[in-house]
């Protein structure tokens, strides 16, 4: 894989040398493009020694090969790390005062920018707006860590560990599939280009007292995989995440929630006007009927507390009902059915009943349990459809299954257009 590593002028540039080593040790060809300011922190000799390749910093170097265009065109992945507040602003404005800016304007591959700056800069409205602009264009912007910064400062803005950046970069390339290995033709549109997709993921937590909650085993991996596949397919993605053991997808507009009620409100708010909704979150069916303001103590007489439960809102059914009532809900709604089956009814029979009951266009059904699906990297699902088409099975790692789900989603979104063409 051909990687361009852009390095801008922040003190975290020294950590990018470690990132470069991870890339080269994995067997990839890496062209390092530092800005002139970055060379104040790490010199050209270091980058050339670690990459084994000549380092260019100026637009007018290697002009015989049109280097300022060639680098971006030939890259399979572009990573800018660290990305300063200034470089984010320049990229959002489409400026190219240096070689890094030219690479960003010519790249047709996945792009990951890794901000690192003081907390005030990261939280400034201008930076917030610039990051939102970049993400809306399909650029993946990794949220910085929170921790010790330069000097005695502490807060969000810390450069993530190189291992986390490299893992995120590899996920981004994997989610883009074969498209990451070649420039996309000008006339070749990704199947979800121009579409907006809302994806929910992770588990919900229902507070019992200030310390305890009711929850489930969801890791959020499958929802993240679906969101990454949708991004790779060209969609603008809003990702609503509950409790998860994995990072949210780079490149999505991320909304974090905790309870089912918060998820309910976020879905109805963000799904309005979207083309599709994928409800991959593991939503709690019940919550404590009463919330204890103080921690529930063990009774001295040994008696057990009684916790009364009540049902949580049915987000999937409520979204379909809102659409039926004329609200601007998505035309394609995908639900998930995590089932266990019993002595008389199979997992798919439970799934078919749920599909009919909920009124969504597609239901992704899988069998769950302590050692199945939750937290695992592989899964098996069957996709059921309200229009009566044959079920579609998919199995493998969750990234592959995410691609299969998005493929069927794209087909559902395209169906009215295909029927219209057939009528003609």
Automatic annotation (TrEMBL):
Q: Name one GO molecular function term.
A: phosphopantothenate--cysteine ligase activity
E.C. no: 4.1.1.36, 6.3.2.5
Top-level taxon:
Bacteria
List, alphabetically, the Pfam families matched. DFP (PF04127), Flavoprotein (PF02441)
Positions of region (Phosphopantothenate--cysteine ligase):
197-424
All copies of the DNA/pantothenate metabolism flavoprotein C-terminal domain together span 192-410
Q: NCBIfam families, per this entry? A: coaBC_dfp
Similarity field: In the C-terminal section; belongs to the PPC synthetase family.
Q: What is this protein called?
A: Coenzyme A biosynthesis bifunctional protein CoaBC
Q: What gene name does this entry carry? A: coaBC
């Amino acid at each position: 894989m051909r990687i361009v590593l852009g390095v801008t002028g922040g003190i975290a540039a020294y950590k990018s040398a470690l990132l470069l080593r991870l890339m080269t040790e994995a067997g990839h060809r890496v062209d390092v493009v530092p800005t002139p300011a970055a060379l104040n922190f790490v010199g050209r000799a270091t980058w050339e020694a670690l990459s084994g390749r000549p380092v260019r910093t100026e637009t007018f170097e290697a002009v015989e090969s049109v280097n300022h265009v060639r680098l971006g065109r030939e890259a399979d992945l572009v990573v800018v790390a660290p990305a300063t507040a200034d470089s984010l602003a320049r990229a959002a404005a489409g400026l190219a005062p240096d070689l890094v800016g030219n690479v960003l304007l010519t790249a047709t591959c996945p792009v990951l920018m890794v901000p690192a700056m003081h907390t005030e800069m990261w939280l400034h409205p201008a930076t917030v707006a610039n990051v939102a602009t970049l993400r809306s264009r399909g650029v993946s912007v990794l949220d910085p860590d929170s921790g010790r910064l330069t000097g005695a400062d502490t807060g969000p803005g810390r450069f993530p560990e190189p291992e986390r950046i490299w893992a995120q970069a590899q996920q981004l390339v994997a989610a883009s599939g074969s498209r990451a290995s070649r420039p996309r033709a000008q006339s070749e549109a990704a199947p979800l280009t121009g579409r907006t997709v809302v994806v929910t993921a992770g588990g919900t937590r229902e507070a019992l007292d200030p310390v305890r909650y009711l929850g489930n085993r969801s890791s959020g991996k499958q929802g993240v995989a679906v969101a990454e596949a949708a991004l790779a397919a060209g969609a603008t993605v809003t990702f609503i995440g509950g409790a998860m053991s994995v990072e949210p997808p780079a490149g999505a507009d991320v909304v974090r929630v905790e309870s089912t009620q918060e998820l309910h409100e976020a879905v109805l708010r963000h799904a309005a006007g979207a083309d599709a909704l994928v409800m991959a979150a593991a939503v709690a069916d019940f919550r404590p009927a009463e919330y204890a303001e103080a921690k529930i103590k063990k009774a001295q007489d040994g008696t057990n507390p009684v916790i009364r439960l009540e049902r949580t809102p049915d987000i999937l059914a409520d979204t379909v009902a809102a659409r039926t009532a004329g609200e601007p809900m998505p035309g394609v709604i995908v639900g998930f059915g995590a089932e266990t089956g019993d002595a008389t009814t199979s997992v798919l029979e439970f799934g078919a009943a749920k599909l009919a009951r909920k009124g969504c266009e597609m239901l992704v059904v899988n069998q769950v349990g302590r050692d199945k699906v939750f937290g695992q990297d592989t899964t098996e699902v069957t996709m059921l459809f309200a229009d009566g088409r044959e079920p579609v099975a998919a199995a493998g790692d969750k990234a592959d299954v995410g691609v299969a789900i998005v493929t069927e989603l794209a087909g559902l979104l395209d169906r009215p257009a295909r029927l219209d063409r057939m009528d003609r």
